[in-house]
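Bit of a strange request maybe. I'm writing a small parser for structure token strings and I need a real example to test against, not something I typed by hand. Could someone generate the tokens for this chain?
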Amino acid sequence: MRRMLCAAMGLWLAIAGPGFGQTAGAAPVVVELYTSQGCSSCPPADAVLAGLALRNDVIALALHVDYWDYIGWKDTFADPAYSGRQRAYARVAGASTVYTPQMIVGGMDHVVGIRAEEVDALIRRYGAGPAPVTLDVARTGGQVQVRARAAAPLANGAVVQLVRYRARERVEIVLGENAGRIIDYANIVTAWTPVADWDGRSELSLTLAAPVFDSDALIVQVPGPGPILAAGALR
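Reply from user aminoacidic:
Good idea to test on real output. This should exercise your parser:
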């Protein structure tokens, strides 16, 4: 247990250490972690995501899948829709299987979730590139104003998605591969909802009803799911 905790802390420091990987003023890069409370390999990746959640240049999102529930512990955050989203990514990538822990960076790059340095290098690469879409989001009470403009017309358009997530929750796991462990989870996705289709040619202007929640993000993504073109966090 002590060895696993030390390894997880080392991964957290590699991602979240002072100034590490930060790009002032850059658009945030979306990192999705596909994880499960029933997966013994996942806690170190959960720790990596917790470090990413502290960064201003990243929108870190934990999507808990349900396909490990049969091995002894039912994940309290799992949703079949998140398993479906991960499988859709696999189909686009031509992969025959899915696994945990897996991170997907920018809607494109698939990485084993504990490979902190590889994830950070991808975040740096995406953050340094030109933004294909400029996104402005602002909350006023229970409404969110969304404006987006593409640098060049989007051949396949885009889907605008509202993601809701809880910043942190602690779970005591009493059965399955992680039995006896108490794990802190970060940025736990509770809903991932498409709210608009955008042709990617004209400027987008939306007003969304979004009651104040723990945390929200707006994500503009090529259908598929494909590359994430822009994202913004709502505080």
